[in-house]
Amino acid sequence: MKLVHYAVLAAMSLSLGACQYTKTADPVLSERDAQFMAMIPTGDVDKMYARYMVDNPTGEPPGVIVVETKQHLLYYTLPDGKAMRYGVALGSEAFGWTGEAVIDHKAEWPTWNPPAEMIARWPHVKRTEGGWTNPLGARALYLFQGGKDTLYRIHGTNEPEKIGRSVSSGCIRMRNIDVIDLYNRVPAGTKVIVR
């Protein structure tokens, strides 16, 4: 009986060893980033949604962002079969978006200009200058299709406790420290697949 028990434990250890999760260092922050980030709650984020380097599960070549909506995970594919994995908050079912796009441009501490449809639903929302109170957080990556703005973004959030949930109006939200890390890694023109 003990031999079977040890065999099961050994098999479990081997299978867990195949799942390589490597914690990565936080990006270096500018003075402005550090000041704003100190004012934003960090929230309790499930370790499932922490930033890790993992074996690439996407099947995509290096240099592609893949968002797995059912898992609430974003992957940025790297060379040598690796990927950076980040937890995300996504659009609620009514506002979810899937498809392919490219990052047209990027912005640090961007100004938030809510679209007309959002203002119609929630008249209290208004344009907000970049800073720690801005719903777009520390960075925004602007998603375009065929040269046209989709109005969807990959961006930071001032509600990090919602990572891992479907709560946004369609955008892909990340913890601010994670969106800074992704922003530093990806150039404009990067392909984004949301599935």
From TrEMBL:
Pfam families: YkuD (PF03734). Belongs to the YkuD family. It comes from the Bacteria. Residues 1-20 form the signal peptide. CDD domains: YkuD_like. The active site is at H155 (proton donor/acceptor), C171 (nucleophile). Pathway: Cell wall biogenesis; peptidoglycan biosynthesis. Residues 63-195 form the L,D-TPase catalytic domain. PROSITE patterns: LD_TPASE, PROKAR_LIPOPROTEIN. This is L,D-TPase catalytic domain-containing protein. One of its GO terms (biological process) is regulation of cell shape. GO terms for molecular function: glycosyltransferase activity; peptidoglycan L,D-transpeptidase activity. GO terms for cellular component: extracellular region. InterPro entries: LD-transpeptidase (IPR050979), LD_TPept_cat_dom (IPR005490), Transpep_catalytic_dom (IPR038063). Keywords: Cell shape, Cell wall biogenesis/degradation, Glycosyltransferase, Hydrolase, Peptidoglycan synthesis, Signal, Transferase.
